[in-house]
Design goal:
mainly alpha, 195 residues, Four Helix Bundle (Hemerythrin (Met), subunit A)
């Protein structure tokens, strides 16, 4: 009974925070609501006894991806009016995708209640070991492709932050390294004053 109450509470917080991610006017607030959604999703994973996935969700998404996303959102000068321009033109496509996702969730839940019963797990079963076995045997190619895509995303993020901007002052490290003491410091000899 207690697990059901906690599950529905986490589910409600997850739905509300997910809704606020797409309706928040400020992108930083949207990113913070996404962090809340990740934490509540990790709580749901813990309730489902998938501890490794819960910890990976918090460490990878909240600890790395969302921090990077927040820095990028705060660094870039985003024109919010321009972002909101295409809301009504993209609304029909968004509603269609939303209806498809709801239909998929309903079919999954209906299969869970009316389909076959889940298999019983052996006493020494470890979901972390099973996940590792699947990732590095059956899905090794997809795992490597995902790693390459993430590497390209990292390189693109670095390239975006290193672009030259006219409104900021920047120092050129190559000029700083080539500097010599004779060009920077001038020794002036002055007679000592007596008091």
């Amino acid at each position: 009974m207690f697990e059901s109450v906690v599950f529905y509470a986490f589910g409600a917080v997850l739905l509300l925070s997910g809704l606020r991610v797409i309706t928040a006017r400020n992108p930083v607030h949207g990113a913070l609501f996404l962090v809340l959604a990740f934490f509540t999703a990790a709580g749901l994973w813990l309730l489902l006894r998938a501890e490794f996935l819960a910890i990976a969700l918090v460490v990878v998404y909240v600890g790395a991806v969302m921090v990077l996303f927040l820095f990028v959102v705060m660094m870039l000068d985003i024109n919010l009016e321009r972002v909101r321009e295409g809301f009504w033109t993209n609304l029909p496509l968004a509603l269609l995708v939303g209806v498809i996702m709801v239909w998929e969730m309903i079919t999954v839940v209906a299969y869970h209640y009316f389909g076959t019963t889940p298999r019983q797990l052996p006493p020494g079963y470890s979901n972390t070991k099973e996940l590792g076995r699947l990732l590095y045997t059956y899905y090794a190619y997809a795992f490597e492709v995902a790693a390459v895509i993430l590497l390209v995303a990292i390189i693109a993020a670095i390239a975006l932050t290193l672009r030259r901007r006219k409104d900021t002052r920047a120092q050129d490290p190559s000029l700083q390294v080539r500097a010599r003491r004779e060009e920077r410091v001038r020794l002036v000899s002055m007679p000592a004053e007596k008091q």
